[in-house]
Amino acid sequence: MDDTEIETEACGALFNYKGNRGFWAFITYCAELGQIVSTRFCDGNVPPGWRQLEEFRHVLGTVPDDVEEVALRSDSAGYQAELLRFCNENQEKRFKRIHYGVSADVNGEFRAAAKAVSETEWKPMKTFEDENGKLVVLQEWAEIAYAPNTLSTKKHGPDYRFFAVREKWDGSGKDTEKEETPEKPVAGREGHGEQLYLEGTIESLEAKSDKVRKLHLTQFGGSIYKLFGVASNIEDGADGESFGLAAGGKMDGRAIIEWRRKRCGKSEEVHHILKEELAGGHVPSKYFGANAAWFNASALAFNLHTILKLFFLPEEYRKSRPRTLRFLLYTMAGKIVNHGRRIVLKLREGDYGGKLLAGALAKLESLPEPGS
Q1: Which of 33, 96, 162, 363 is the most buried (most CB within 10 A)?
Q2: How far apart are CA 12 and CA 22, in angstroms?
Q3: Which residues face 140 on adjacent strands?
Q4: DSSP designation for 88
């Protein structure tokens, strides 16, 4: 589950927390199907994650009856006590378990819990070998003893687990938590093998830049680290095949964090396709309802595109983006002819897209009739 900002100067658009006029488009994406299963279009002044539990319950109502386990991935907008309690306690008992991996808020108590972890308990997360073959640690992770008041309301029940990820700060405002694989440091760039010399306190550094403030800079010993948090209820030793690991793989803290991070790359890719390739990134009207319908049309086009490439085109087009198929199929020149009470579409015989279309139509005709 993730939302994206649609900036516009159209009349009626409201300001969001970033100070921009626009709207929020919230989507729920099913990774197994490659489909957008739910959308919500909101005014700009609506906070991210608004009524996310309601949206999640709506999506669960569309899940087939034979599905036994569900897993939710979300950014920090989904770090809501009511949403995490709903997943953890599984009050409806329809599923065996509702797992989740959500970015946790890094507040003072979270920082204190992370700093209380012994240096020997931090485990490597991302590593690489330098020119001399020496192993350099980019990121480290540790499970922390953290119990926020909003979730610690019952003595008995499933546990809430929290993980901290730290990375030495190199002086930039780049958020590597949003990347599936952080970049290796380039030659001449300090910060990963040795700590930069910093002038001023963390508070003064954060005051100078919003990007720096989002990195939750924290001092461990004599070094300053970027700090990120993850909340989850997945147990160590859980079957990793359900979470994308190879058969026989088991989940641990590192696997849980990496599984949650995969949300970032996929949701950003889906937002890019919707906004840049399917025209969902702008609004056609000053009327909210018309703009919401426009975005929903983009989401439907995304789903139809996915169905087309997965079921009706050759396997080599499984990963094709709409931009690719637009030039092969959607913009072909043809002639519509009415003859013998039939409508015929004529295409140039040598057009490669025509062969793809003919093959897709043949597969479509072979499907059984609805209800049969």
Answers
A1: 162
A2: 9
A3: 124, 166
A4: H
What pLDDT sits at residue 372?
Answer: 66
Query: How far apart (Å, rounded) are the C-alpha atoms in residues 126 and 137?
Result: 6
Burial class of 355 by CB neighbour count within 10 A (0 to 12, 13 to 18, 19+): middle
The pLDDT, as a whole number, for residue 193 is: 42
Q: SS3 of 107, please? A: coil
Please state, in angstroms and rounded to a whole number, the distance separating the CA atoms of residues 139 and 253.
Answer: 14
What is the token pair recorded at 187?
Answer: 């030659």
98 and 154 in contact (C-beta within 8 Å)?
no
Give pTM, 2 decimals: 0.84
Whole-number average pLDDT of the chain: 87
248-265 residues labelled b (16+ CB within 10 A) or e (exposed): eeebbbebbbbbbbebbe
Interval 126-152: pLDDT, tens: 888 888 888 888 899 999 999 998 888
For residue 260, give the 3-state DSSP assignment: helix
Q: How far apart are CA 148 and CA 229, in angstroms?
A: 13
DSSP letter for 242, please.
G
| Residue 147 neighbours by CB distance under 10 Å | 12
Number of separate helices (H) and strands (E) present in the chain: 9, 13
CA 4 – CA 39 distance, rounded (Å): 11
Cβ contact 104:162 at 8 Å: yes
3-state secondary structure 286-338: CCHHHHHHHHHHHHHHHHHHHHHHHHCCCHHHCCCCHHHHHHHHHCCCEEEEE
